[in-house]
């Protein structure tokens, strides 16, 4: 029986409210300390060293919270220095993480004092309404000029490519009509990718929302598949890589030399055609048998279900990773394969994480050799709760928005 069950109703409510306010204040203060820890993860990018895709993914994994709450914690941590008053209210137990999270996710720079005062009385819903009423920042005015610019000739369509040690850069210039077609295709593929992303289980750690780059790659792949279908004996367009078997050096066909992790990454999931060379002379082409069959792929998907890296849970776009690298003699068999998402696949080949087989005794470690497990770090506390005042909570009165004065961002300095 509850210790307050024998009390009168009003007295019982008073006792329970007192305890609720005290526990809420302690929880808010604990959330404030969690935000400071996550801010350190974010500032030094320690989440990548731990094998996570993002700081929010690390919080969801290690703290055992939902992805949406992890995003809120990450948003506050990322803007910790921009909202010191709001974060102080959180650490002192007066404001909740949800209140500060709404501010950090939507408020303009320089509005810390305004929203810290408002949050002392406003609910989370009222804070969202106040942020919607805030004026949008105006673009900086263009400098006035008395001289009329000379008419320039219409630019010709062009595609330029430059390459450095790590990346290849494409610069595409199209007339407005062709650019509109290109934009429409990108939007269509991005909408489809986002629809697939939204269908994923929200209780699991989801990959980042698809970007324009993901849509562009889907557009390219779709064009490849359509072209291959029109050719009577056409195969899927492939990337061609040349590998010197003596020096273990790889390069793209008519392209730059690849780093070791990029060479192994390309050959691992059978996404490219490999030509072997010795002393600059071809000695044979890699067989496509390193590509897993549909039957083997189905068996692999039924066994692993998701990315095998603990804390990930990605289910779309998974790669079939050779636990013993294909170029080192690893076989394309179920015992030597594991499903990994593209992020963790590349992280493995770059040495950020290590995936060691065989598949029935899989061990995943981070860059420091610490085993990665899917369990959170939550455990029974060994220290007393923070000594803070009970949380009073929002006052809860009805907001009269016609009296409310939204935060006004400072005007940009005038140009001379």
**Strand and helix order:** HHHHHHHHEEHHEEEHEEHEEHEE
Give the overall pLDDT as a whole number.
79
Structural class computed from helices and strand pairing: alpha+beta
Q: How many distinct helices?
A: 13
Number of strands: 11
Low-confidence stretches: 230-237
The major beta sheet can be summarized as:
5 strands, mixed
General shape: globular
Q: What fraction, in percent, of the residue positions are helical?
A: 25-40%
Radius of gyration: 28 Å
End-to-end Cα distance:
75 Å
Amount of beta strand? 5-15%
Strand order of the largest sheet: 5-4-3-6-7
Domain HNH nuclease: 295-346
GO molecular function, one term: endonuclease activity
Region (Disordered): 135-162, 371-394
Biased composition (Pro residues): 381-393
